[in-house]
Structure formats: C-alpha cells, structure tokens
Amino acid sequence: MNLFDSLIHSAHSAAPSLSGLSPQRSSETLCKIAGKLRKHSAHILNENGRDLARMEKGNPDYDRLMLSEERISGIASDMEAVAALPVPYGQVIDRWERPNGMVITKVTVPFGVIGVIFEARPNVTADVFGLCFRSGSACVMKGGRDADFSSRAIVGIIRETLAEEGLPEDLCMLMPSERECAASMMKAVGQIDVIIPRGGRGLIDFVRENSMVPVIETGAGVCHTYVDASADTEKSAKVVFNAKTRRVSVCNALDCLIIHRSRLDDLSSICAPLKDCNVEIYADEEAYGSLEGSYPASLLRHAGEDSFGTEFRDYKMAVKTVNDIDEAIRHISEYGSRHSECIMSEDEESVRKFQLMVDASCVYANVSTAFTDGGQFGFGAEIGISTQKLHARGPMALRELTTYKYLISGNGQTRN
User: Fold this and answer.
1) What mean pLDDT value characterizes the chain?
2) Above 80 in pLDDT, residue 319?
3) Which of 106, 111, 80 is nearest to 94 (CA)?
4) DSSP, res 192
5) Among candidate residues 316, 204, 295, the one with its CA nearest the CA of residue 253
C-alpha cells in the first residue's frame, strides 16, 4: 500500500467513530474548531500570504484564494451555523407495514467517507469538514497546490481540536497536493463512498471521466440573466450589476446578459453601473450598436462564438439579443451549464414559462444569481452546487450528504 492509499485507508478506518458521537458533542466540537479558527487567524493569514505570493494578482483565482480577518470570521460563522443545525442522519423518511405484518422503515444514514477534489479555495477545507462531520462522515480532501499552505493551516487546527476531543484526527484528511493523489482517490472503491469535484469545467470533466468512485458534479457555472420585454429597467440594472460584480470568480457570477430586442434602448442604462468596475462587454451586433457611444469604447468588444457558453470568472460579460422568451430559453439550453439562470420580468406568465422550461438547478425571477449559495439558502454552508440530476441538485449541504437504508422488522415471517 503506497502513502496515498494508506492515508485514504486511515480516513476510512476513522469513520466508524462518528457512529457513536452524540449530536450535542458533534455541535460542541465544531464550535470549538470555529473558535480556534478565529483565535489563530494571524497564523492562517500568514500561510495564506505564502500562497498569494506565488500567484499573479491578475489571476481570476486570486480573489478566491485570498483570505482576510473578515473571511476567516465568516468561515468560522458558517461552521457554527452548521453546528446549530439538526444532524441529518437517523431521520425517518417513510414507514409502512406489509400485509404479512413486516414493518419497513426508510431512514437517512451517513455516506461514510466523502472525497472532495478542489482548486484554489482554502475556505473549502473548513466547509467540507464541517458539513461532513455534522452529517456523520469522514472527509478526504485533495486541494490545489495554489492554496496548499492556507489549507494545511486550517486543517492543522481542525485535526488538533479533534485530538483534544478524543476523536481520530483522520476524520479530516488533507492529501498531499501532488496530482497523483487524485488518481488514488478516484480508484479508492470501497474506501471512499462518493467524490465531489469543486472547480472549473476542466477539473470536473477530468474527475467524471476517470473516477471509479461515484461522482457528484458541482461547480461549473455559466449563468445567464434574461431581460424580458416587461422587465423593470432599474431592477434589471441592480440585479445584473450584483450578479456580475459581487465576486467575479465564483460559480454563480453572471456570464451572459440576454436582452429582448424591444429593450435594446434600455441596454445602456442596464449596463451603466458596470462601468465603475471596468467590466468588459462582449456584445453581439445589435447590442454593440446600442451600447456604442454610451459604454466606454475601451471596454466594449464584438462578441465571437466563444463569448457564449464561457464561464469568465473575471470582469467580463457577454450580451445576446433575442426576439422573444423562447429564443432566450433556447440560448440557455445550448450554452448554459444547468447551474443558475434568471429572468427579469413583470409578466407572471413569462416568469412561469421561464421557470418551468429552463433546465437548471436554480431558476430565479427578479433575483440575482449570487444567491445560489448554501448559506443564503439557509443551509449553513455548502459542499458545492450540484449541476446534475441524480441524488442531489443545487446547493448541497447536510441533508444532501446522507443516503438511506431500509430497516425491516418482523416476528419470524418467511417467504413462500
């Protein structure tokens, strides 16, 4: 057994220790870890600085990688929010009795060991551990080299606290940053129960195509906002600005504004706030003509075919003109990633049609796509945004980190 396989095996061996852990003790442990994250924020920031020093500031991942006192406090708060939620396992989903007196109960149970492969997001280490621990599972994480110092500082605090609480440190396992570790995780059938990739399309495709362990796809977000014929201009400008600029590197950030042809005269007003953040706009011919002269020429580009269906993760946005809502829906169907889509409309029938027909995990009406987030949905935190349809869809939190089994009871029944 090589080193990587040995680390995975250690996490698998530690997982059963959670079966006897009371919800109260689980909550207390997470709160202690949250407190230590705040207490040792200077150490975490120092290690984060080592990571940041290796990355160009112009890299779209720089913002994702960067920590601050405020962000560390937010990470700790998310962990405390998870600690305050009920444990999701042991819940009775259904119960019924068969004619022969046999009683069948369907109950939620932990996965056991959850593997997560992610990129330059040091906060993921704390979120993943908190959610896995509260849902009764051990976690095996493999982060990107870009965030390795930061992630190890956070995991070191977690493991130290677990040991102090008399729990196995290996309930939280951070693998070395070598790429070979990912291969070991993807082959760990019987040791890891499910793998969740968090990152760009390249990472997600790689894991899905190579893993022998079941995979839940998350993360890649090509998000659209459609401004319908009846849309309110002021609302649209506000929502578009927030969805595009709040944090450009996250998966729920806006990538393409779709506008009804009848609203082209309002396009300059809708896009005006974006100037302050130097957002580059890649507009089709009609939208370009509408913006020319009102939007800074240095930030206005002609759209190419590759402008659509691109997750920019930067201060860039495409604009597409359509004849009607049906064309908007077709465009989303062709170029979207089934993550988060939005319609701006004051017409109830248009909203109903859009929300019914658009195939995405989260479909908004007059609300920024920036809200696709476990914390904003009231889940405490999230382990990722699932863009597939099996097992879980949308923000994945405690409830989605369980599976179920059947408990069958009787009094000596036998089958003919």
Assistant:
1) 93
2) yes
3) 106
4) B
5) 316
Spatial distance between the Cα atoms of 291 and 305, rounded to a whole number of angstroms:
19
Question: Per-residue pLDDT for 1 more than 80?
Answer: no
Query: What are 199-254's pLDDT values in tens digits?
Result: 777 888 899 999 999 999 876 789 999 999 999 999 999 999 999 999 888 889 99
Residue located via tokens 């070979």: 180
Helix (H, G, I), strand (E, B) or coil at 363: strand
Q: What's the pLDDT score for residue 410?
A: 95
Indicate the Cα dihedral angle 399, 395, 368, 359, nearest 10°: -110
Rounded to an integer, what distance in angstroms lies between the CA atom of residue 363 and that of residue 279? 24
Distance CA 372, CA 395 (A): 7
Cβ atoms of residues 41 and 72 within 8 Å: yes
CA dihedral in degrees (127, 130, 136, 139; nearest 10)? 60
Q: Give the pairing type, strands 300-302 and 280-283.
A: parallel
Q: Is 160 within 8 Å of 39 (Cβ atoms)?
A: no
- Alpha-carbon span 319 to 324, nearest angstrom: 15
Instruction: Give the per-residue pLDDT at 2.
Output: 84
Coil, helix or strand at residue 292: strand
Distant-in-sequence, close-in-space partners of 101: CB < 8 Å, separation ≥ 6: 410, 411, 413
Q: List, for residues 35-73, the tens digit of each pLDDT value.
A: 999 999 999 999 999 999 999 888 877 888 899 999 999
- Position 348 scores a pLDDT of 96
Q: What are phi and psi of 303, to 5 degrees?
A: -70, 140
Q: Checking DSSP bridges between strand 92-97 and strand 103-110, what pairing results, if any?
A: antiparallel
Half-sphere exposure of 386 (CA within 13 A, CB side): 17
Instruction: Evaluate if residue 28 carries a pLDDT over 70.
Output: yes
Strands 300-302 and 384-386: unpaired
DSSP 3-state percent helix, strand, coil across the chain (nearest 5)? 45, 20, 35
